[in-house]
Structure formats: C-alpha cells, structure tokens
Amino acid sequence: MPPVPAILIRSVLREVLRWYAAGLALFLVLQLADILSTTVGLLLGYDATPLEALTAFGAFAPTILNRALVLAVPFAVLLAFGRLQGDSELKAMFAAGVRPLGLVWPLALPFVLVGLVAYVNAGYVVPAGLDRWDRAWYGIYGTTPPPPTQDNYTYAPPGALFYAGRVRNDSGGTVAQLDGVLVQRGGETVTAQSGTWDTAKHTWTVKDAWVTRPGEDPRQVKGPLVFPQGDALSLPQPPANKVSTPRLRERLASDRLTPQQRRDDTFQLAARVADPLTPVVFALAAGALGLLIRNRAAAFAAVLVFIVVFYVVWTTVPQLARAGALAPTLAAWLPNLVFLLFAGLLAWRLR
User: What is its subcellular localisation (predicted)?
Assistant: First the structure.
C-alpha cells in the first residue's frame, strides 16, 4: 500500500489534539473538584484564608497536572476515532487504500512532547509541591511540623549493637532523645526506656537501665550509664515522592537505606521514567483500539474501560513493590507493559 498522505496525518492529529485539549481540561476540573470536596470542610473549619487555600491547592497542582496529562490521551484518541468512524471518514480512508496502522504510529509523535513535560514535572516540580502541600496544611491547622524522627534505628559496630525504637532531634542540635534503648556489648545487654545521644561527644547515655549478664539476674542501675557510640546522627530520609530525581539517585547510591526504603526509592525512580512514557503507550494502544470501534457510544465506553483498567493496575503495583512481592522496577513498568502487549495484539489483528 502507498504511504499515508501527510495531509491525512495532519487532519487526524488535529482531530486528536482538539479532543486532547478538551480531555485535559475535563480531567483537571474533575480532580480539582475531588480535592475541593474533601478539603473544603477543613478549610472552613479552621478558618483558612483565601491565600492559604490557594497556596495549598497550588502546591498540589503539579500532581493533578501529571495525572491529567496521561488520562486525557485515551480520552482524546478514542473519541476522535469514534467520531471519524461514526462519520464514515475512516471507511473512506481505508477504501482509498490507507493502511490502518499508518494512522496509529503518527499519534505517538505529539505525545512524546507531553511525556517530556510529565518527566520534568514528576522529577522536579511534583516532589517540591508535595512538601509545600504538607507545610501549607500545618499552617492552616495552626501547628508546627513535627520534629524529625527516625524509627527502629540500628547501629552494629564490631562486637556491639545499638538500637533505639525512635530517635527524636527536637531542637535540631547535637543532642537527640532516644526511646526504647537497647545496647549489647559482648555478653552484656542493657535496656532502658529512654536516653540521650550526644553526637558531639559520640556517646549514648541512659538512666534507670536494666543490665543483664550471662548467668546473672537482671539488675537495675539507677545512675547514668554512658556508652561510646561513633555513628553520625542524620536527619531521617524524607519519603521518596518528596525527593527530586537527582537527589533520589544520590540516595540510592548510598548504603544508609533500609531494604524498605530502597524498594520505595527504586520504584519511585523507575516510575518517574515509566509514567512519562505512558502517554505514548496510550496513544498507540488507544489508536489501535479506536480503529476497531464503530461509533461514538462504543468509543465513550472504551474510554471508561481503558481508564479503569489502567487505574487498577497503576494503583496496585506500588503496594506490590513496597511489600516485596514484585521487583520495584518491574512494578513501575508493568502498566506500560500491559498496554504495550494490548497494543501489539490489536496491531497484529489490524496488520
């Protein structure tokens, strides 16, 4: 078959992009309405000023923008192809010798640019926005952010073990508070409800501790016990979704992450590459599906099924990655792989 005329490709792209603009506006409004419905009561209850409300919503805007950029793609492609099918324009194209798949591949081109916008937004703008969103609500509530804490701290130098259920650095200085302390050195085990960590002196100090030695009954020591401890006190790692892409790469290269934190960071970093490619994958899958749709009603139904299937997979894989049931990188790419497989099966049928 002869190649698809350029004027025909431009006509189809113009139709798709017109629907894309409408879909982008629709999904932005729907998400904003959802946020308003869940927060307007809190805003009124805490007498938030218009500026505080705008600050909070502005901080969350990059997140809803990325979702809208992706979800508007199947909406645009399927409804555009449904309109072309309903008006028999696609039938006329095929009757003139146009290859069906020749109309699908060009759809990916404009959405490459959408993917680039989503990549920059997800890696640099969204993390900072989520952090501002939290801080904005602390202002609305009239409270200060909680002090940095680290749960289940463990340090194991040769011949010893230092554990604290929680490390709290309320003042931000060189002395931190310890809760649920356990120290093992040789055959001696020391436990205490609380203690302090002086990073300038490199010591842990506990009071009213219980000391257990092999073959002896536990005994309580009323005075302070001081243990040399050479580890450095560092701020707890912020959640992966609040860390920019360059900082996330640096953090993954360090050896201070727990297995859980490493899985979260790996998934988040992979998702920031996979998710911006979703518009391109959606354009191919929705384009192939659109060629099989015969009317506008079927196109609208296909949009709903398309988005629901994606949303179910997209919201499930982070939990699988976090639980270790699925490799984090595979979990991040799984939604795209599912729809690429779907697009491949439809392309085989349309060949």
Answer: Cell membrane
Residue 176 near residue 167 (C-beta atoms within 8 A): yes
Who has greater pLDDT, 143 or 33?
Answer: 33
Give CA separation, 214 vs 160, 211, 224, 321, in Å. 16, 10, 22, 42
Contact 177/168 with Cβ under 8 angstroms? yes
Contact status, residue 341 vs residue 281, Cβ threshold 8 Å: no
Q: Is 310 exposed, middle or buried (0-12, 13-18, 19+ CB in 10 A)?
A: buried
DSSP, collapsed to helix, strand or coil, labels residue 186 as coil
Cα separation, 73 vs 283, in Å, equals 6
Confirm if 212 and 189 have CB atoms less than 8 A apart: yes
Reported pTM: 0.76
Q: How far apart are the first and last CA of the chain?
A: 12
In whole angstroms, what is the distance from residue 292 CA to residue 98 CA? 15
The amino acid present at 140, given as its one-letter code, is I
At residue 173, the pLDDT reads 67
CA distances (Å), origin 247, targets 26, 113, 117, 238, 253: 34, 24, 19, 11, 10
Tokens of 63: 């997140």
Do 204 and 180 meet the contact criterion of CB atoms below 8 Å apart?
no
How far, in Å, are 6, 21, 272 from residue 74 at the CA level?
A: 23, 12, 20
Task: Please report the pLDDT score of residue 96 as a whole number.
Answer: 66
Give the residues across from 211 on adjacent strands.
190, 219
Residues 5-15, buried b or exposed e (16+ Cβ, 10 A)? eeebbeebbeb
How do residues 91-103 score in pLDDT, each as one tens digit? Answer: 777 666 777 777 7
Identify each DSSP E strand in the chain by its residue range. Answer: 149-155, 160-168, 175-185, 188-198, 203-206, 209-212, 219-221, 225-228
pLDDT by residue (tens digit) across 223-282?
A: 899 999 888 766 667 888 999 999 999 988 887 777 888 899 999 999 999 999 999 999
Mean pLDDT value of segment 29-33: 91
At residue 1, the 3 state secondary structure works out as: coil
